[in-house]
Design brief:
Transmembrane segments (chain B): 16-40, 60-84, 111-131, 166-185, 206-230
InterPro entries (chain B): Cytochrome_b-558, SQR/QFR_C/D
Radius of gyration of chain B: 21 Å
CATH superfamily of the largest domain in chain A: Alpha-helical ferredoxin
CATH architecture of chain B: Up-down Bundle
Number of helices of chain A: 8
Shape of chain B: globular
Shape of chain A: elongated
Order of helices and strands of chain B: HHHHHHEEHHHE
Radius of gyration of chain A: 21 Å
CATH class of the largest domain in chain A: Mainly Alpha
Keywords (chain B): Membrane, Transmembrane, Transmembrane helix
Strand order of the largest sheet of chain B: 2-1-3
Helix content of chain B: 55-70%
Protein name (chain B): Succinate dehydrogenase cytochrome b subunit
Strand order of the largest sheet of chain A: 2-1-5-3-4
Oligomer: heterodimer
Distance between the termini of chain A: 62 Å
Chain lengths: 261, 255
């Protein structure tokens, strides 16, 4: 294998994996052994090996979400050894490599836990609540027609950078999964502050925060108590400052919008 | 539902209530602490009783006392309501393994527990001091004279000095201050964050002030009963049940 470490010894691991047939059945932890795992494998590749073993034995493979496997799509979402996306900071599950573990380790793998994220099957959860929150206000209005000139609207670099930082949220849900309150405020605030910072977002500025917060509450997410687990576990480093910005936006919108309902 | 009730029943609105009432309660703690520290003066409680009288009679303070009680009740109710709501949001199945200690502070995750401990302490504390000083039917206070006032005042000092000779009460009081310290450790900075007051220039100072505030306030509150327990210098006047006419500046405290 190109670029692999020749000194890296294959590992044998014990996996404790959450297995659950569907939403309506109870799940439980099932133990599996995986052998000859290369330290150069990603965590998901290690699960691929497990699934091939299971298929060979005629058992049902473990369901888990994944797509790009390069840390940008936000599909992968595993709670590994008591941490969202595993023990390494600033890393999605797919970018976590087996070299972070040692031969003989026991690894517990669970799905995101939240009332708003029901388990579909095994390690795969339904995160469509996030989609509905975005639909409630995470958009801007623009004119259709010809392609606008680049940099037509002047935006200070500082503002553009801060908006971009907020925009890097990949909506993986690690914030909800690691929050004691199962609060989605880091996710919602990333979108609210990104669009509040930019002039393009100002048309829906007040209705956006009102509607997105209302939808967030409706989905059954908890209320933020500023614990900070979310920002600590966020694979792309969305900061708590965004939640403060959202709180300001919300107070301002509720106090001054024309919405009486 | 009007927009006002909708705002304050939303997740952010509920947190705003917690933040505003919590920071208001912090300001009350400062006043309470400054008056408590008067007990450590070697004047037989004259200064303490003077300020206790002021707190019990000044119309502005009496009005703020009502605001304080409403704020406290709102903080307790909303805190418990949020704890229940957030627990429900977590869902039925808990994590089998959860290393939350690696991503957050213990105090931040246990505000409801700390608040409940403080509530238990507060009930004992209010029954002992506040109810007795405000309602004569609940035991009332003996009366003493203090300098600078032409009328006798309630001897709350003796209630405190007597209470602080009871080992279990001193232990409960001092241990409760640990809960207070941890509660403030998270609560102070959290209040600012909820109000949206997060700025890269000021937030480090807010954190530092909060940590300092929590340690200093809780330590001083805890030290007062401990000093009064171990030192012979702080003794209650013997309970006579009626007006004790004496000048505290000319006579040492009765032993």
């Amino acid at each position: 294998m190109a670029g692999s470490n020749p000194n890296a010894k294959p590992m044998n691991l014990t996996l404790k994996v959450w297995r659950q047939r569907n939403r309506n059945t109870a799940g439980s932890i099932v133990d599996y052994q995986v052998k000859d795992i290369s330290p150069d494998m990603s965590f998901l590749e290690m699960l691929d090996v497990l699934n091939e073993d299971l298929l060979r034995q005629g058992e049902e493979p473990v369901a888990f979400d994944h797509d790009c496997r390069e840390g940008i799509c936000g599909s992968c979402n595993l709670f590994i050894n008591g941490r969202a996306h595993g023990p390494e900071a600033g890393t999605t599950t797919c970018q976590l490599h087996m070299r972070k573990f040692s031969d003989g380790d026991t690894i517990t793998i669970e799905p995101w836990r939240s009332a708003a994220f029901p388990v579909n099957k095994d390690l795969s959860v339904d995160r469509s609540a996030f989609d509905r929150i975005i639909q409630a206000g995470g958009y801007i209005s623009i004119n259709t027609g010809g392609t606008p000139d680049a940099n037509e609207i002047p935006i200070p670099k500082d503002i553009a950078d801060r908006a971009f930082e907020a925009a890097t949220c990949i909506a993986c849900g690690a914030c909800v999964a690691s929050c004691k309150n199962s609060s989605a405020m880091l996710f919602v605030s990333a979108k609210v502050s990104q669009l509040a910072l930019l002039p393009q977002g100002h048309v829906e500025r007040k209705t956006r925060v009102e509607n997105m917060v209302a939808q967030m509450d409706k989905e059954g997410f908890g209320a933020c108590s500023n614990i900070g687990s979310c920002a600590a576990e966020c694979p792309v480093g969305i900061s708590l400052e965004n939640i403060a910005i959202m709180n300001r936006e919300y107070i301002n919108a509720k106090a001054t919008s024309n919405n009486l309902a | 539902m009007s927009w006002i009730t909708k705002t304050f029943s939303s997740s952010i609105g509920r947190k705003l209530i917690m933040a505003v009432t919590g920071l208001f309660l912090c300001s009350f703690l400062v006043v309470h602490l400054l008056i408590n520290l008067q007990m450590l003066r070697h004047d037989g409680g004259a200064s303490f009783n003077f300020w206790a009288e002021f707190m019990g009679t000044n119309p502005v303070i009496r009005f703020m006392e009502i605001v304080l009680m409403l704020g406290l009740l709102a903080h307790i109710y909303q805190g418990l309501a949020l704890a229940v709501k957030n627990k429900k949001a977590r869902g039925g199945q808990a994590y089998v393994v959860n290393h939350s200690e690696q991503n957050s502070q213990w105090a931040s995750r246990n505000m409801a527990l700390l608040g409940t401990l403080l509530l238990i302490f507060l009930i004992v504390h209010l029954m002992n001091f506040w109810i007795r000083s405000r309602f004569d039917a609940m035991g009332g206070l003996a009366e003493v004279r203090v300098p600078n006032l032409d009328h006798p005042v309630g001897d709350l000092y003796s209630v405190a000095a007597a209470s602080f000779k009871i080992p279990w009460y001193v232990a409960l009081y001092a241990l409760s201050q640990i809960a207070l310290g941890y509660h403030l450790w998270h609560g102070f900075r959290s209040g600012f964050q909820t109000l949206g007051l997060n700025h890269r220039k000021y937030t480090p100072a807010i954190y530092l002030t909060g940590y300092g505030f929590s340690v200093i306030v809780s330590a001083l509150f805890a030290v007062i009963p401990l000093v009064m327990f171990f030192s012979e210098a702080y003794q209650p006047r013997p309970a006579t049940g009626n007006t004790v006419e004496q000048s505290l500046t000319t006579e040492p405290a009765l032993r």
